[in-house]
Amino acid sequence: MNNPNYVLGVDIGTTSTKVVLFTDKGEVVRQDSGNYPLYCPTPGAAEQDPEEIFSEVITTINQVLTDCPLSNLLCISFATAMHTLIAVDEEGELLTNSITWADNRGAPWAEKIKAEHNGKEIYQRTGTPIHGMSPFVKLVWLRHEKPEIFQQAAKFISIKEYIFQRFFSEYVVDYALAATTGLFNSKTLTWDQEALAVAGITEEKLSRVVPPTEIFQPIHSGFAEAMGIAPEIPVVIGASDGVLSNLGVGAISRGMVAVTVGTSGALRMMVDKPKMDAQQRLFCYPLLTDKWVVGGAVNNGGIALSWVREQLAANEATTAKLLQKGAYELLNNIAETTPAGAEGLIFHPYLAGERSPLWDGNARASFFGLSLRHTKAHLIRAVLEGVVYNLYLVFQALEDVVGKGDTILASGGFAKSSIWRQILADVFNREITVPTMHESTSFGAAILGLYALGRISSLDVVTDLVSHSDIYQPIPENVSVYERIMPLYSSLLTKFQAEYAAIARIQEETASQ
Ligand code: ADP
Fold this sequence. Notes:
Helix 11 (about 305-310) runs antiparallel to helix 14, helix 12 packs across helix 13 and helix 13 crosses helix 14 (about 375-400). Strand 15 (about 255-260) and strand 16 (about 265-270) form a beta hairpin. The chain is an alpha+beta fold. Strands 17-18-16-15-21-22-23 form a 7-stranded mixed β-sheet, with helices on both faces. Strands 3-2-1-5-14-13 form a 6-stranded mixed β-sheet, with helices on both faces. Strands 4-7 form a two-stranded antiparallel sheet. The chain is globular, with a radius of gyration of 23 Å. The protein binds adenosine-5'-diphosphate (ADP). Adenosine-5'-diphosphate binds near residues 262, 416 and 420.
């Protein structure tokens, strides 16, 4: 029997780098991950040290490849977190940390760009919502609030560009990741001159743009040695983690919707042409010249259940330990004792403000409809349902913009919960499928790597390589309950939205007294 060939998928995320060695048939051989801290030294800041990430990437790749049959390693391919911004000087020295998507300091500038700098038109070309997370907005913030750094900067790059510069001594970026900067025309795949002018920079301050399939070699020998690879191994630049996660769960045809919910969440569909949302609720990013991903990212995913666990369920967490169960598992069991709709209790899950579909940093969570008959079990169920109601609003926006979604692929931490998966099936009134592959983003990177090398002729082969563990059908009685609740959820939301700014103001003023 021939030895299999291998591909290494590397997913550089916000909390960790995950490295997975796959066979070229998509089987996981080995995997490991390495964490790094997020620094929040001042209000709104959320930064990481690029050197800490770089060294964790090297170490984790080395850990996965130690004692592996390296002679058949075909390539390394990268997925990276979106929306990071790093300023470097002429010598390549860091002027800032990596300012992550979660950094909120630029938020007030987003409003200004929308109101005074043609933000709507710019979004229609870039596909990146004008929001504090976007490097475009962060640049405007840097220009006005940190002019000494802005003026000294020779380049503005992302974490992937930083890593590739270290490997190959060149500033390069794939167009899939460039598209998440808010400075890039997602339709023409070139930098957007109007966005650059608003940011106050020219193209020289940005990296050379290449396709996600571009191959780089050789890696500087010192780094190759540290990772335990031969310097001439092809390195595929890859794409953003968002589009590669869609590829990795096999959601690549029209009508297939990937719903990924970890701490936060996202809903995405792949289409063959760029589609912008006239109401600016969704993003639109390219993967290749015939594949774009349209979707919405929500802040309030699993974080809502983790809030319940920490704030409302200390006793349950202790009981779970005694029962040798996970705390989430016990919370799921408790929620299962109540019926669909939580007997009239509705939770709006906006504990962390919200991106899609509201784009309102002031949004707040609330329970509506509480009565004496409600128990903690109802509260837990309402929280699970509220997260899904919000996802459903994003789903409706997605269907408005790109057309019907028939197949839902659920992944991320929430997909471990059978009650949450059933609620998803019932609120969406669609069949839900759960892919078995957990590291779907690294898998997407590996598939793109095989495509870049010409080992597969189309990305479509991914559908043969992804296996599914569970299928959930909507339960008709639950569907009809949720069909009655959804309009109420939306009309309450409209009323609450009118007051979110007021409660935020009261909170700010009382905190500063
Ligand atoms: P991250 O987004 O940080 O990578 P995960 O994808 O592991 O994390 O998702 C973590 C979230 O998934 C938790 O906040 C929790 O809400 C949810 N979760 C994890 N396990 C379960 C479970 N067994 N039941 C319900 N929810 C779960």
